[in-house]
Structures are given as C-alpha cells and as structure tokens.
Amino acid sequence: SLALTLTCFLVHQSASIQDFLDMGTRLVVLISGNGSNLQAVIDAIASGVLPNTEISLVISNRKDAYGLQRARDAGIEAVCHNLIPYSKRFPDPNARYGQEAREAYDADLADKVLGAKPALVICAGW
C-alpha cells in the first residue's frame, strides 16, 4: 500500500511525513495490470493529499495493462518493459529466461527508472 511504502521510506530516511511531502517528490510507479493502486496515487496527487508530488513515469511488464492507459489519460508517460524480447535476443536452451536475458532486462529497466530521476519508486503490483 502507499502508506506502507511511505512508512518504509520515512523510517529508512529518518524523515517526517512533512519532510517527505516538502521534497517535491518525483515518483516512478511499476505496475503489472489494471492499475487500481496507480489510480489511487494519481487521485491522491490530484486531490492534494500528496502535495508537491508528481508521477514522472509508469512502467508495466505487460503491454496490455490497463494501468498504462490510466497513466496516459492522466498525462503521465507510460511504457511497457517486457522480458520476452530479451529472451529472444539472448536465448538459453536450458531456461525460458536465461541469466543473460534477465541481466540485460534488469539493466535496461534500471536505466528507465533512473532516467526519470525519481525520489521514490512504488511497486504497485509489479
């Protein structure tokens, strides 16, 4: 949940909720499907519950995830990052997704996330 994510962040950073909200927080949200958790975050930002906060990127591992459309409807950049192309580029006869494919996929995902310069990454169903 968003509250748990924020609590974990605050404990790790030794920050108060007000400190967190005052930072002008950029979020990256990772989703896999419908995007109902994403919508809750979008709504919290729009209503002012999460002031000084923006979602800079939404990433799904499924191209047909409805959450990608929810993000686009809210004017947020949304992309699909799927492992299948990597398994085709780096085939492994002993595994569906070999280590080389997984490492390349993870590295590209990290580049996408870090490129959005988030203060916080929310795994909302990922």
Description:
By secondary structure, the chain is α/β, with parallel strands linked by helices. The protein has six helices and four strands, in the order H-H-E-H-E-H-E-H-H-E. The chain has a four-stranded parallel β-sheet. The longest helix has 17 residues, at about 100-115.
Brief summary:
By secondary structure, the protein is α/β, with parallel strands linked by helices. It has helices at residues 2-13, 17-22, 36-47, 66-73, 84-89, 99-115; strands at residues 25-31, 53-60, 78-80, 120-124. The protein is built from six helices and four strands, in the order H-H-E-H-E-H-E-H-H-E.
Secondary-structure map:
Layout: H1 2-13, H2 17-22, E1 25-31, H3 36-47, E2 53-60, H4 66-73, E3 78-80, H5 84-89, H6 99-115, E4 120-124
Parallel strand pairs: 1-2, 1-4, 2-3
Proportion of residues in helical segments? 40-55%
Q: Note the beta-strand portion.
A: 15-25%
Rounded Rg: 16 Å
Secondary structure category = alpha/beta
N→C terminal distance: 12 Å
What string, H for helix and E for strand, traces the elements in order?
Answer: HHEHEHEHHE
Give the strand line-up of the largest sheet: 3-2-1-4
DSSP, total strands:
4
Largest sheet: 4 strands, parallel
Number of helices: 6
Shape: elongated
**Poorly predicted spans:** 1-12
Mean of pLDDT? 86
